[in-house]
Amino acid sequence: MDRPNIQGQIGYLTLNSEGAVLASEGDLKNDEKTAGILHGLITLAHNRLDPKAFDKGFKRLTVTYEDHAYVVCLSNRKIHIVKRQVQAT
Amino acid sequence: MGCCWSLLCKDDNSSQNGEPNERTHLLVDPISNNIHIQRVSSENLLSRNSNDAPKKTDEQSALTRILQETATNVIDVAAIDSHNLQQQEYIERVKMYNIKINQVLAGNKGALANSLKSCLLEDVPQPEKILSGDLLNREDRHLMTSSLLAAVSAINDIRVDHKEDLVVPFGLGLNS
């Protein structure tokens, strides 16, 4: 899945486990800054959260804003980041 | 794949019993090996020729000087009796380098796995499914934002309500 196509998607990034950009498109094209921040965020969250406090591991990390959201998940040792438009309801 | 940092690793050849390896220079340093080429400074030439100096020898000496200086600065590849690589040796070296590269890569794989260990997320087989899942709905977001704001304002509101003296005299009642 190097070119994700998700409803409301306005950009995507694929990173390797070290946080280097493998693929990017749309709003996130060559956006190494966002890549660095989100990669740092999942490492930071891992250091801050005690796994014993949760029944299951985490599958997704979402950073939500008023009108858009960054959705992060890990698959096949790659970090997939999708920027999605938030539907105004 | 010649090694260019010849000045730094001059002694490597001798330590490997003269066997060519990946650190053997393809070109030998001509300045240190060719004794007969000597750097002649222009001052030497001037003083030598100042006594019997007709104009022609001056020009000739200047020419020789330029020639010699050029000779000391240029590496004449054809003239150097360097170790020529044979086809078989090329193949052997390719094999050797590949083995070394694989060793380095194997070492790095452990580092890669380690960097994933510090990742909060689980590896999932179908990322599209997870990524396209419903986002946080409006009510939940509102609840989180409002309770967070309430918590922040509560924390900012914490203050010491000063009612009694901070310093309390202990045990004074017993002595009196």
TrEMBL record, chain A:
Keywords: Lysosome
InterPro entries (UniProt xref): LAMTOR4
Domain of life of the organism encoding this protein: Eukaryota
A GO CC term assigned to this protein in UniProt: lysosome
GO biological process, one term: positive regulation of TOR signaling
Compartment(s): Lysosome
GO molecular-function term, one example from the UniProt record: guanyl-nucleotide exchange factor activity
Family membership: Belongs to the LAMTOR4 family.
The protein's name: Late endosomal/lysosomal adaptor and MAPK and MTOR activator 4
TrEMBL record, chain B:
Annotated signal peptide: none
Keyword Oxidoreductase: no
Membrane-topology descriptor: Lipid-anchor
Keywords for this protein: Endosome, Lipoprotein, Lysosome, Membrane, Myristate, Palmitate
Keyword Secreted part of the UniProt annotation: no
Domain of life: Eukaryota
GO terms under cellular component: late endosome membrane; lysosomal membrane; membrane raft; Ragulator complex
Transmembrane segments: none
GO biological process assignments: cellular response to amino acid stimulus; cholesterol homeostasis; endosomal transport; lysosome organization; positive regulation of MAPK cascade; positive regulation of TOR signaling; regulation of receptor recycling
Database matches in InterPro entries: LAMTOR1/MEH1
Alphabetized GO MF terms: guanyl-nucleotide exchange factor activity; molecular adaptor activity
Localization, UniProt: Late endosome membrane; Lysosome membrane
PANTHER family: RAGULATOR COMPLEX PROTEIN LAMTOR1 (PTHR13401:SF2)
Family of the protein in this entry: Belongs to the LAMTOR1 family.
Protein name, as recorded: Ragulator complex protein LAMTOR1
Lineage of source species: Eukaryota, Metazoa, Ecdysozoa, Arthropoda, Hexapoda
